[in-house]
């Protein structure tokens, strides 16, 4: 169903059974598969508050990303969204255009430099992938992953790119997470995770550790810059115009009931790198 090469199966479902199909999921779970435009509109846009994600979805995102938009629901989610929505306003997004232009010019310069010795074949996909990561990094969290002028890898960027391809083959085990999440303390679960002899799971643990470490570093840098004032913010990559800087600034001036604790602000950092799902949960 979720394989990259499953399009033939999807087409067969539609041709044989129509736009809404009841199927059996893992462990006998009953699921509805639909590509009816009206149904999809109600699920994703009009009535999304009715069609909540599963408990496995929330637990998995909390364990991997922290307590952000993708791991909360109900009133908790609405409180986070209330603080985040202004950061995505048209004016704020327009202010980020100079950042995007700067990255685009860096890409142009990098490609031109690689062609200095004459026409040659270049890997456009690689360049655009690096550029996309840099655009998201500067625009959302004010962090530069790749100067685009040299071959350089960033541990956080590499971790984010590896997360879904590494974790996706373990999708079926996600159904066990709500049960495992209740059997002990986070410290105990962490210990069990470390001794589990499953290489792919250990690789996911390493990726999440890198993400968490770098997220905390970026978060502390942002907080320190805010405390020092606007001049310090202007010296950072995002010049204080990135979404994370705006979020922290809004949180400082919010009322006590609307303020988010640091661990929830921290949980937004990696969440911003999953734009498709974030967009649905944000709006």
TrEMBL record:
Q: InterPro entries given for it?
A: Cyt_P450, Cyt_P450_sf, Cytochrome_P450_monoxygenase
Q: In which pathway does it act?
A: Secondary metabolite biosynthesis
Cofactor field: heme
UniProt keyword annotations, A-Z = Heme, Iron, Metal-binding, Monooxygenase, Oxidoreductase
Per the record, a Pfam family?
A: p450
**GO molecular function annotations of the record:** heme binding; iron ion binding; monooxygenase activity; oxidoreductase activity, acting on paired donors, with incorporation or reduction of molecular oxygen
Q: Which family does the record assign?
A: Belongs to the cytochrome P450 family.
What PANTHER family does its record include? Answer: CYTOCHROME P450, CYTOCHROME P450 12A4, MITOCHONDRIAL-RELATED
Q: What protein is this chain from?
A: Cytochrome P450
């Amino acid at each position: 169903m979720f394989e990259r090469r499953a399009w033939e199966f999807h087409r067969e479902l539609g041709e044989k059974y129509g736009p809404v199909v009841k199927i059996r999921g893992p462990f006998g779970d009953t699921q509805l598969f639909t590509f009816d435009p009206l149904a999809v509109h109600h699920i994703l846009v009009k009535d999304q508050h009715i069609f909540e994600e599963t408990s496995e979805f929330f637990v998995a995102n909390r364990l991997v990303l922290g307590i952000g938009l993708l791991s909360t629901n109900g009133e908790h989610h609405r409180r986070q969204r209330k603080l985040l929505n202004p950061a995505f306003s048209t004016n704020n997004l327009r202010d980020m255009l100079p950042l995007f232009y700067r990255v685009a010019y860096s890409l142009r310069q990098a490609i031109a430099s690689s062609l200095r010795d004459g026409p040659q074949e270049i890997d456009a996909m690689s360049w655009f992938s690096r550029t996309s990561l840099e655009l998201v990094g500067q625009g959302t969290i004010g962090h530069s992953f790749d100067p685009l002028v040299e071959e350089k890898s960033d541990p956080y960027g590499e971790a984010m790119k590896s997360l879904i391809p590494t974790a996706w083959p373990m999708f079926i085990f996600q159904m066990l997470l709500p049960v495992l999440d209740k059997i002990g303390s986070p410290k105990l679960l962490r210990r069990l995770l470390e001794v589990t002899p499953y290489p792919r799971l250990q690789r996911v643990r390493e990726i999440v550790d890198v993400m968490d470490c770098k997220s905390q570093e970026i978060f502390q840098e942002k907080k320190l810059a805010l405390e020092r004032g606007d001049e310090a913010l202007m010296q950072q990559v995002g010049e204080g115009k990135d979404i994370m800087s705006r979020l922290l600034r809004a949180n400082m001036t919010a009322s006590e009931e609307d303020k988010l604790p640091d661990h929830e602000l921290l949980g937004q950092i990696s969440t911003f790198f999953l734009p498709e799902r974030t967009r649905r949960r944000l709006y």
